[in-house]
Amino acid sequence: MSHITHDIRHGLSLDQAKRVAHAALDDYLARYSSRGLRAAWSSETRAEVEVAVKGVRLAAVVDVLPDVLRVDANVPFVLRAFKGTAIATVEREVQKWIDREKTQAPA
C-alpha cells in the first residue's frame, strides 16, 4: 500500500465547498454505484469513499476544509502506476464542480 494525500484548492466559502462536495458525490454515486463506487458521509465535512478497480479495492477519505478539498487514499501496489492519472482525473472533475459553483455564486 502506498498512502497519498492530495489537496485541491477551491477558493470557496466552507458552505459552498460543502455544497460542491455533496453534489459531486451524489452525482458520482448515481452514475457509478453500479460499477462498484460506494461512499458515505461520516460528518458534514468528511466522506468515506470506496471503489473497486479490476477487482482491487481502493479506499479514500475526502475532507472539506476551509481552503481545500483533501483526498487521503491508500493505493494498493498494483494500482500505483496509475496514481498520477487518477490524481489528474480527480482534480479535473472536482475543478468542474468548483467552477460551476463559482459561476452560480452571487457577485
Taking the alpha carbons of the first and last residues, their distance comes to: 45 Å
User: Under the CATH scheme, which class?
Assistant: Alpha Beta
- How is the CATH topology named? Alpha-D-Glucose-1,6-Bisphosphate, Chain A, domain 4
How many H/I helical runs? Answer: 2
Structural class: alpha+beta
What percent of the residues sit in helical stretches (DSSP H or I)?
25-40%
Largest sheet: 5 strands, antiparallel
What would the principal axes of the Cα set say about the shape?
A: globular
Give, in order, the helices and strands.
EHEEEEH
Compact description:
The protein is an alpha+beta fold and 107 residues long. It is built from 2 helices and 5 strands; from the N terminus they run βαββββα.
Description:
By secondary structure, this protein is of the alpha+beta class. The protein has a single domain (about 1-100), classed as START domain (Alpha-D-Glucose-1,6-Bisphosphate, Chain A, domain 4, 2-Layer Sandwich). It has 2 helices and 5 strands, in the order E-H-E-E-E-E-H. It has helices at about 15-30, 85-105; strands at about 1-10, 40-45, 45-55, 55-65, 70-75. Strands 1-5-4-3-2 form a 5-stranded antiparallel β-sheet. Helix 1 (about 15-30) packs across helix 2. It is globular. The termini are far apart.
Set down the secondary structure blueprint.
Layout: E1 2-9, H1 14-32, E2 38-43, E3 46-53, E4 56-64, E5 68-75, H2 83-104
Antiparallel strand pairs: 1-5, 2-3, 3-4, 4-5
